[in-house]
Amino acid sequence: MLGIFWLEAHGIEFNTCLAQMYLIHTFCIIESALLVAMAFDRYVAICIPLRYTTILTTTMVIKMGLGSMTRATLMVLPCPLLIKRLPYYTKKVINHTYCEHMAVVKLASANTLINRAYGISVALSVMILDLGLIATSYIKILQAVFQLSSQNARSKALGTCAAHVCTILAFYTPALFSFLTHRIGKKVPPSVHIIFASLYLLIPPTVNPLVYGVKTKQIRDRVMGLFFPNKKISEN
Prior knowledge:
This is Putative olfactory receptor 52P1. Odorant receptor. It holds the Pfam family 7tm_4. Residues 1-212 form the G-protein coupled receptors family 1 profile domain. This protein is mainly alpha-helical. The chain has a single domain, classed as Up-down Bundle (Rhopdopsin 7-helix transmembrane proteins). 75% of the residues lie in helices and 0% in strands. It has helices at residues 2-7, 14-47, 52-55, 58-76, 78-84, 101-105, 113-145, 151-183, 190-215, 217-227. The longest helix is centred in the N-terminal third of the chain and has 34 residues, at 14-47. The radius of gyration is 21 Å and the shape is globular. The two termini are 42 Å apart. The model has no long low-confidence stretch (mean pLDDT 84).
């Protein structure tokens, strides 16, 4: 994106475009799995805190990370392979700031039913599975929280989940709109497709530091110290 805006670098090799597409979608699926892991972390911390250290061991965290990477790698791998078999005769301009899967598929001069079907199946399976697991975790969390007798304890437990919920919304909301405008919105202007596809990549990394910075006292105090050096910073 910066190459386009700053350097007017509008060209990209076809194989490089496929590599970019593969890496972008792979890391997006890994990020989705990371949100699931964070929801599981909150579930264990709130619902079964006494077993937290025995369940979320270093070995378990490594297995979850490797599982997330393996899933993303294998699910996205067929996408560039299926695109490679398509002929491209006339259209060679992608109406996007990066090589998005459906944008590349639409340029092909052949039947792209298999590509579209596989792209939809991957997107739906990731969203349904991951959002289902996240929703299940938070249903269990809410059940446990509202059983607490202390209002202060309930507020503290819900406060620990607030940052994660904001991150989930920042990630899945533009992703869902981008997915729907491509598959359902036949009369949606191309500019809307481009905006939502770009926001899908830009919003989460922009919002995440703000969300966790505000919720983390140490980070908040350090940032305040940079802008107000003469103000006394409280430290634990």
